[in-house]
Amino acid sequence: MTVLVVAEHRRGELRDVSLELLSAGRQLADSTGGELHVGVVSGDAEGYAERLNREGVDAIHTVAHGEEFNHDVYTQAVTQLFDAVEPTVLLVPNSVNGLDYAPAVAERLDVPLVTDAVGLAYDDGLTVTREMYGSKVETTLEVDGPQAAVTVRPAEWPKAEGSGDASVESFDAAIDESAVRSTVTGFQEVGGGDIDISDADVLVSVGRGIEEEDNLEIIHDLAEALDATVSASRPIVDNGWLPKDRQVGQSGKVVTPDVYIAIGISGAVQHVAGMKGADTIVAINEDPNAPIFDIADVGIQDDLFDVVPALTEQFS
Amino acid sequence: MKILVTVKEVAAVDDEFEIDGLGIDDRYLTYDLNEWDEYAVEEAVQLAEAGEDVEVVTVTVGPEDAEDTIRQALAKGADRAIRVWDDAIAEAGLLDPGTKARLLEAVVAAEDPDLVLSGVQAGDDAFGATGVTLASRLDWEWAAVVNDLELADGVANVHRELEGGVEEITEVDLPAVLTIQTGINDPRYASLRGIRQAQQKELTVQSLADVGLDADVLDSPIEQTDLYEPESEGEATIYEGSADETAADLAELLREKGVAQ
User: Fold this and answer.
1) CB contact under 8 A, A181 and B141
2) Interface probe, candidates B163, B224, B261, chain A, greatest A C-beta count within 10 A
3) Which of A3, A144, B34, B153 could form a disulfide with A29 if both were Cys (CB 3.0 to 4.6 A apart)?
4) What count of other Cβ atoms lies within 10 Å of the Cβ of residue B224?
5) pTM to 2 decimals?
6) B159 vs A226: CB contact, 8 Å cut-off?
7) How far apart, in whole angstroms, are the C-alpha atoms of residue A237 and residue A260?
8) Comparing A287 with B231, which gets the higher pLDDT?
9) Angle CA(B71)–CA(B77)–CA(B78) in degrees, nearest 5?
10) A95 to chain B, minimum CA–CA distance in Å?
11) Residues B82-139: pLDDT tens digits?
12) Predicted complex ipTM
């Protein structure tokens, strides 16, 4: 069978998830001795094709059209490329942009779509592993039919390495401009305040477990005692309890401090994406099954309202 | 103007739980309005408050038990609600985004809204694909992961929240389906008056036949065959003891790491 991977780039940079998808695609193609094709749409497609030419890639198809991602262009280009390559499985990043066109592609092609895959297997048919209930359980889904589309979770597969000898060909997609009814007019960086959490050596990071805004006092007290900086997971920022520039995670900042103390943070995949590079990860959480303990080096499975003041006391 | 908001009741799992077949034992589940949908409802209600003659209608694919949750959305300001359900849906397997989109498409066809708002994803199955699938079926425009929205003449000006603290500024033609990200607004608490009024608001239940669909719409190509607790990959050292004891152990480690020195 053939696997078709669609690469992702933004503002002139090929995104790492593209190389991860090559590994996922190669693994899937290997199970039936099939070919791995890659599509790259818009921007410097030729330049990206060079970087995508890694070991195990058989063919790269470039579509020259515009600079940045536009979902109407991607939907048309990928649908047409799919019809030309006739893959058994289409793999798209489970990114904000991937989720902005993959469902439309699958719907137009009338193929099943499974999102946010963390495992893929092919044996007579496609089997996808994904998580539910905020990573508390995994499910296995069997997909019926000759073809399918899957969005693949970032950072689950290693980046493909080595250099390949794939054929690189321009694919002449016929983009109907009257069907392009959206325009990307620009980008905006989320405003930075005085403090850059990505510079901090020690982060005291707070999540939903703190329950109320007033309770943040014990977090600030601990940070002061440790001479650390306060950061947060998404819900704290969504609630407006801390500014957006304090948010760690996929849509916030990626931090790599010496010590990261996660307090009342469950460890959703979007959060972990922003802090897994910390040297030492400490988790304080009442729920022993919280996914944060999967990546923590040290953990305390107890009530944060008891542990945090006791820890502050140790440094007073 | 009419805004249709998709509303789902989702289950959160207790810290300790048991698996029952292909699901989680209901004793360990707590049901509530999907977090993302709460922001979508608020966005629609704010648009209604800012505009003139804007009707906000919620649509839910869910059982009768979901009605308390649907009333929450009505208490926060939605005008009326539609709940699609019947025995065939109850007995169906997985309601994947394609299947959900077909059910919602039928409701959109009947209601003819100008705008559909959905949450980015549901907190339980987190497919994150129903909104865009629905837009494609309707041949409407769409935008996924919207954290800022302004309506102008015939277009929606949105910010899409990309990864890494970057927002994409995009203009999409209306009608459109927009998937709403948490943090776009500050969802209100329902007032006592709102809660009282919600009890009187119209909540219509529609079967597959009512929305003009056959049961074969439920034949999903995706079948769930297993559900299990993943093995912990963790190698964390867990400190045991009272809070004072564990805090002392942690303090010792932090000092070793040079914290607060």
Assistant:
1) yes
2) B163
3) A3
4) 18
5) 0.94
6) no
7) 18
8) A287
9) 65
10) 8
11) 999 999 999 998 899 999 999 999 999 999 999 999 999 999 999 999 999 999 999 9
12) 0.95
